[in-house]
Amino acid sequence: MQTHITTTPFGRRSLSLAHVASQAVAKARPLDKAVHKWNVFRAICTAKARIGVSERALAVLDALLSFHPETALTGEDLIVFPSNQQLSLRAHGMAPATLRRHLAVLVDAGLIVRRDSPNGKRYARKDRGGEVELAFGFDLSPLVARADEFEAWAKEVRAEERALKLVRERITLCRRDIAKMIATGMAEGVPTRAQGPADWMEIHGLYRAIVERIPRNAIRQALEPIAEDLTLLAEEILTLLEAHVKTSVSSGNESQTERHKQNSNPDSPIDLEPRFRESRGAGTELKTEPSRQPEGAYPLGMILDACPDIIDYARSGISNWRDFMATVAVVRPMLGISPSAWEEAQAAMGEVQAAVVVAAILQRGTAINSAGGYIRDLTRKAEAGAFSIGPMLMALIGKRKGEKKRA
């Protein structure tokens, strides 16, 4: 029978007060307490950030648990003594040096306790009946003693993850609602506190300022104030639209019909622009095909992959080139691109390429200080034959893939 339980590690490994505390917790556990080892392991995986262990260290813990023959952890026989070779195999072929490093992490985190033999080897001595009477290896008792603590941490982490998911969903819904309500307000000429589209552009600028505050990798505490600001803005815009609808309904049928006469054709693109000057000829009106890809244009799916933000401003999504061009007509004045700069860009680049440039400017956000000056510079390059839309799209797609990889 074992008369003394070792408390210090073999060799030059040091003994810290944290190790002593872990051993005290394991020693004080009730001997009749039993826990499901894989339930405890799942709780530890969920709360790994709180505990301070990595995925590689958890792979080593998984391997150690597999050497315990029973599913339930109870009693005193909780010491496992695998060799480094067998432990490495069950840890997916982990290198010996890496294995030792992660074992030390598990010990420091208070998940296991070292029970080293006089020579540092792991083994067990059995009595004449074949029962283990003395074992040296890794003690799994802390998992039993701290099972309730790990489960409580796991519940807190799951609750935090759910709250973070909800606030992200709230931000996404508010962004969609605000963008489409602004587009509707501009297209229908809904008055704000004062007359004129400049007021809607100010609302759009406020919306973009709030969106730019969203961090790339944000915690819930950082996102909640942003979600609150977006919710308030969405409610204010909705109040403007509802007030305009009530005013329209209360007016006579004749005036209501006159107000909506310009939008009687549902297939026509949104026309927020003044007509091109007659000196440019009769063929300068906006013409879009509902489904056919314009000659020489990049695929619409590729453009939306590079510039997904423009979808937020579409009235009913973007499924063809007609939808894309109509949405660009809404976004262009929001960005502050003047009609003259727009005409020159269309003349130099072509109608579709100029629209793609607008979508790209929207996607880059605050990286471009002056959208009008930027598109004029690109127009000059296009007139000199030194501009192509392809590298711009590739750069945007590469940037989005890099952000997803980092996230």
TrEMBL record:
Pfam families: RP-C, RP-C_C. Residues 13-185 form the Plasmid replication protein C N-terminal domain. Keywords: Plasmid. Residues 299-397 form the Plasmid replication protein C C-terminal domain. Residues 249-298 are annotated as: Disordered. The keyword Repressor does not apply. Coiled coil: none annotated. SUPFAM superfamilies: Winged helix' DNA-binding domain. Residues 272-292 have a biased composition (Basic and acidic residues). Transmembrane segments: none annotated. NCBIfam families: PRK13824.1 (NF010396), RepABC_RepC (NF040974). This is Replication initiation protein RepC. It comes from Ancylobacter pratisalsi. The lineage of its organism: Bacteria, Pseudomonadati, Pseudomonadota, Alphaproteobacteria, Hyphomicrobiales.
